[in-house]
Amino acid sequence: MNADLSQVLGTGAMVVLFATSALFLLVRMDLAPAGGRPGPLDGGGRWFLGAALGVGIIAFSLKLAIILTLSSFPEQTIAPLLPDPALAVREDGRTEWPLLAGPDGGDRPYPWRALPAVVPSPPDNPTTPAKVALGERLFHDKDLSLDHTVSCASCHDLLGGAGGDRRATSLGIRGIVGGRNAPTVWNAAFQSRLFWDGRAGSLEEQAMGPPLNPDEMGMPSAAAIEARIGASPSYREAFAEAFGDDAPVTMRRITQAIAAFERTLVTNDSPYDRFVRGDDKALDPAQKRGMWLFQSVGCVMCHSGPNFSGASLVGPQNPYAPLMASRSAPARRHGLTVDKGKAPAGSVDGLWRIPSLRNVALTAPYFHNGSVSELEEAVRVMATAQLNATLSEDRRLGKTPSWSVEGGRFEVVERLVLSEADIRDIAAFLRGLTSDRLARLSLDRERGPE
Description:
Shape: elongated
Oligomer: single chain
Function: Involved in methylamine metabolism. Essential for the maturation of the beta subunit of MADH, presumably via a step in the biosynthesis of tryptophan tryptophylquinone (TTQ), the cofactor of MADH.
Main location: periplasm
Strand order of the largest sheet: 1-2
Keywords: Electron transport, Heme, Iron, Membrane, Metal-binding, Oxidoreductase, Periplasm, Peroxidase, Signal, Transmembrane, Transmembrane helix, Transport
Organism: Paramagnetospirillum magneticum (strain ATCC 700264 / AMB-1) (Magnetospirillum magneticum)
GO molecular function, one term: cytochrome-c peroxidase activity
């Protein structure tokens, strides 16, 4: 028991003793009827009043006894019973947010920000309406594939699939099954690295890849693509409008147009965006707890900034992170140790570009191999792999005694423990990153035609 608590209990005991004595004298002397005449406080009436006034003393004494009992328990025994002050919600519904250091380890508090509405264009590819219209047409055109069966939109269904295809791994020409999951194209314009392994540094560079990939769109060369698109009079007219009268159809201009269109694919209309702009009711209590956990347990160390990715043009951090799948039973169960991404040969764990978490509730299945279908399970994988967390309802596991041979004493090893309620709250917060418009479209798709 610490000294402050001992002082409080001692003072409380003195208060009880003094109050009891005062009560006895008050009832016996001050409240007795004068002159010996019978009165309402004679006999049983006096004792009834004493008992009534003593209820407060008894209640106070019981509180002191409870405090004394709990203070004798080890900290790890009573910790699960105590509310986390970081999650306290005031009567007006606003959440109290303690300040933590930012993901760079500095003293500045972590800044929660809404996603900007406009993506900046590179100097060599300014966004224009004509270029965007051309890019949208190319994005949906299956003529960019060898057998005219696959377009960019086949794997990146903007409205029906929230920018993905809802498959574990994508299908290319001739039904070839790809090796990786198709990331959403929504908000991809805010990313500084594209593809799961981050091999592309711009949307223009990324758009060059799939048409020439033999397992995706299968075109033999850039010249073959230029010849096919350039054979269309309407395309030649659209390229002239977008790039100038004398602009021939080139692969560079094709990718510039597609990139210009993709820079318009922004969703900053989520409950989270409304919340950080000042609408305190936009997130429910579970989502607010999940938001606090997302910050306090360290998810923001990788999924930072308004696009929730270190590989972002807005608030960039390190764009890559190792996926520590080898130490996670859930990650191993889902086969996440097989493909190592950008990691050097012989690495135990993979190295991947940090993906954005916006609209993640709509883009299952998850991870580079599309092996996880439920959002809560994806949170469990990341908690155990990246945070080395223990999944348990027993908070005592967070502080484990370890005997130090050198020091000849016990030392406490602290470890993050997350309960199923924590997992659900984090997942609830992630669902708050969903665009309102895409959520409505997803709901309409699930309902089907009326």
